[in-house]
# Entry
Amino acid sequence: MISVLINGGEDGKMLARLLTQLVPAVAEGLVREAAVIGGDEPSRAVADDAGAALFAAGAFAEAVERARGPWIAGLPLTALLRPDWIAQLGGHLALGDERPARLVRRGGFGLGAGPEGWLVPKRLAATSAVAVEHDLQRLARRGGRALRVLDRR
# Structure
């Protein structure tokens, strides 16, 4: 199961859209929980209404530590998930090799690929010297495969 971490930002509507996209994966047992880090008051209200865990801005390491899933994913606030995203992530987890993954739009390194997310085993995230998001993004880039789970807006 996956714990999803999202930086709250200042767009409650976008956060609501992203959290809504996670609901089918929660129903299927793939996503265990969502946590929102930081954000303005409207975004925090959306997160609270959705049942997401709330963390103060800058409390990324605490969010990682408290994540209950064996995998942790970071999604950009602007993420629009492809229709097959649940199957792609589920297939990756089914491999059983604990290999991190980049969550991308086009599956490549080209310019204009847009923001990307990441997926790492909690075990690796917790052993990171300091659990900061850019370290986990780097870990997914170095040793991970690209999963095309993000769609164009």
